[in-house]
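Pilot study result, target chain (344 residues):
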Amino acid sequence: MKYKAKNDKEYNEHVKSEHISILHKNNKTKREKILFKHYIKKKKITDFIRFHFEEDFDIKEILTYEYTYLQFENCIFYKKADFSNFIFNGKIEFLNCKFLGDILFFDSTINANLVMNSNYFVEKIINNKIFKNTNINCQSFELIGNINLPRLDGITFSKETKFTLKDCHYTPNYNYIGKVNYTIAEIQAEKIHDDKNIGYYTYYERKYNTINRSDFLNYGEYLLSKILNYIARELMGYGEHLSKFFLYIISIISIFAFIYMLIGVTTTSGDIIKFNIKNINSIFEIFKMYIEFWYFSVITFSTVGFGDMTINGIIGKILVCLEVFIGITIQSTWAALIIKRMFR
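Predicted structure:
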């Protein structure tokens, strides 16, 4: 494998094969650890691919040369990876790396695009604020698909930075960290009017907003909040999944239509329409009858009520009242969501 050095010169041909292997092996000897740092500095490496960092990594100690681009790909940091008190003026990428110890960006300034995708962070550091007092002045900061991504509070973005946080999920024990991180992403997206991602951040910020029993005076209020939160998440994605909300509307109308078909309705001419297997000769007749009841369910749900059909029986009337109530509630919610999207 070839590594780039300053001025894009290939240096691997000048280094003995045993030295190249040192960069990628673990359980290095004391001498190999010394050679490891020596060759990085000597050859001014900027592409760190499959490197094994067994000792504490301090970027100020290692990166004593100029660079325009840094890439850490499939690397393993066994101990502390310290990128603190450093000014990054060239693009930096961390791809598929494993951080088995602390990682720090304290008091650093990042003036070039930063990408951290598909990395693994050891769980014990998930509560650490790894970007404390870090100034992000680049155009793009991307965090996608990271496992156990630590807290991001303490970070400072410029007004122009596009911050992308996606596919970084948390177990219930760390919901509050997910809430913090996605809240930060939501705030930055609103600042730069990143309308495309605001809804995504809003959904996950609320998803990780844990409802605690201690926040309520009695169990009834707590249970009600849990139920409403579950409905809001599953039914409409906290107002961000309009397509999902629309499918639920269609499902509700369809379910009521099926129930009405079993109960039966009376038309203005006095005819009673009701499903009876003895009078059905084909699947097409069942489908045709269901369309009639689906139409009745739609006008009931929408509260239009043309009056060309009336439900039969007391149970049917109760169901109509229930569907009207659901319809009014959902229609008002639907209108609010549409207006919210329009203003956004």
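One observation from the pilot: Residues 1-19 have pLDDT under 50 and may be disordered. A full batch analysis is planned for the follow-on phase.
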